[in-house]
Amino acid sequence: MKSKQVFVCQECGAQFAKWQGRCTACGAWNSVIEEIAPATSAGGRLTAASDNAPQPIARVSLEEFSRIATGMAELDLVLGGGLVPGSLSLLGGEPGIGKSTILLQLALAVSKSFGRVLYVSGEESAPQVRMRAERLGALSDDLWLLTENNLELILQQAERQSCRLLIVDSIQTVFLPELAAAPGSVSQVRQCGNELLKLAKERGVAVILVGHVTKEGNLAGPRVLEHMVDTVLYFEGDRLANLRLLRSIKNRFGSTNEIGVFEMTEHGLTALGDPSAVFLTHREKQVAGAAVGCVLQGARPVLLEIQALTSPTSFGNARRLASGLDYNRLLIILAVLEKKVGLNLGNQDVYVNVTGGLRVDDPAVDLAVAAAVASAYFDRALPHDLVAVGEIGLTGELRPIGQPEQRFRESARMGFGNVVTAGRPNVRAAAEKCGLKLYGADDLRLALSLMGLL
Predict the structure, then answer these.
(1) Distance CA 9, CA 400 (A)
(2) Which of 39, 344, 358, 375 could lock onto 3 through a cystine, CB 3.0 to 4.6 A?
(3) Where is this region: Lon-protease-like (predicted)?
(4) Rounded to 5°, angle at Cα 396 from 387 and 328
């Protein structure tokens, strides 16, 4: 048995024989750090005896696949119906955003309904966690707390307690003594993740890891950790505001398009089951530069408000700024408005924002963005009960939207009576069924004319 020194990039995990200032794999500077590789045996093929044998896929039993309800409807929605026994999940988010809060609430609900939960804290002391649990009302005889950083001891306690759920807060603080690297290094995070994955698959324990984020907002640690886990969740929001969004970046057991909406209160996180009411701005007077659209987040339609501001530029090149919307998509919409509609935006700074902090990638929001920009450009407000839905092509045409009935039903529920979109027969039938007045348009110029902007 012998060990050797290697140089490992702390951003991507690439290994090098000697130190270098820039990682040639990911391009990061000053990220290559010297570590001691784990000892390996000299030569020989590893052999292992196992009772596990291949079987026809039709005979694979799904009896152990029953999900564990978390007690929070929004969290279950993002997970695809609840936690899966034997799954490994990674939860990331900025410091102070509420990761420990939502996990304590989750641990309480699971311990009351499904059995013992082991909560491992590597960053806080037991009294600190107890104080938070008292504030959240998360005290249960089946919720066990362990403050430990040694992963070997954590795994021993997890097997001894026969827990249904294991929460490790956080993966960057635990370590394996056999590795000489410091906690949080690439080799420690990768190997600790492997050991926890082995525990989850062999014992059928649902494991949730908390991950730190970098200053760029990405999950810290090697990318192999994200590939290793079954689910990657990201908790986001403004720490100075009460709204929190939970989205799934990766999910082997469900959709990655769903979002969970929560409100942070003094008693913990409260699920908000009506996102449209959260993202819509209710004002008594209509203002120029605001338009309402409808996007699909997974299977759920969400109404949101697009705000735009145009202002004469003071410099040679006009600025374009997008918040919650793809920047390149905004440039395409502005180019179509200039070329096909005739708006002179070359000397205008354009700012577009999706209210509520939601990030949108549904192309059906294109028409609402164009309407908001045109409304700001002409300083003319749109009708208060109008919803604009449609994808804009490069030639200025409006493309049909998907699942129109779900979008129209949500629009009618929120009190909107008119909708502007591409007037296809199925779209007209859906609007009539939902009691909406449809203004069909084949291109962007006609759509803006129907809205009273041209």
Answers:
(1) 47
(2) 39
(3) 349-454
(4) 80
pLDDT in tens, 161-188: 899 999 999 899 999 998 877 888 888 8
* Residue 415 among known ligand-binding residues: no
Residue 312, annotated as binding a ligand: no
206-211 vs 165-169, strand pairing mode: parallel
Alpha-carbon span 48 to 26, nearest angstrom? 36
Prediction pTM value: 0.80
State both tokens at 57. Answer: 């896929």
**pLDDT interval class at 38 (50, 70, 90):** low
Q: Is residue 211 annotated as involved in ligand binding?
A: no
What is d(CA 454, CA 434) in angstroms, rounded to the nearest whole number? 28
**Sign of the alpha-carbon torsion through 203, 204, 210, 211:** positive
Task: For 96-112, give one letter per residue: b (16+ CB within 10 A) or e.
Answer: ebbbbbbbbbbbbbbbe
CA 127 to chain centre: 31
Burial category of 301 from C-beta neighbours within 10 Å (exposed 0-12, middle 13-18, buried 19 and up): buried
For residue 306, the cross-strand partners are: 291, 354
What one-character DSSP code corresponds to residue 63? G
Q: Is 18 annotated as a binding residue?
A: no
Position 340 pLDDT exceeds 50: yes
Q: Is 237 annotated as a binding residue?
A: no
Decide if pLDDT at 208 tops 90. yes
Determine if residue 333 is labeled as part of a ligand binding site: no
Cβ count within 10 A of residue 71: 17
54 in a known ligand binding site = no
Nearest to 211 by CA among 169, 255, 250: 169
Q: 45 exposed, middle or buried (CB, 10 Å; 0-12, 13-18, 19+)?
A: exposed
> Which is nearest to 260 in space by CA: 293, 292, 234, 241?
234
Cβ-Cβ contacts under 8 Å for 351 (sequence gap 6 or more): 308, 309, 310, 311, 319, 320, 321, 323
Q: How many CA atoms lie within 13 A of 211 on its CB side?
A: 30
Residue 326 burial by Cβ neighbours in a 10 Å radius (0-12, 13-18, 19+): middle
* CA 28/CA 167 separation, integer angstroms: 31
3-state secondary structure of 296: strand
Alpha helix ranges (H) inside 394-443: 404-413, 425-434
Pairs from 5-8 (Cβ < 8 Å, separation ≥ 24): 5/34, 5/35, 5/36, 5/37, 6/34, 6/35, 6/36, 6/37, 7/32, 7/33, 7/34, 7/35, 8/32, 8/33, 8/35, 8/185, 8/186, 8/187
d(CA 229, CA 236): 20
Reference 358, options 411, 307, 405; nearest CA is 307
Task: Tell me if 390 is assigned to a ligand binding site.
Answer: no
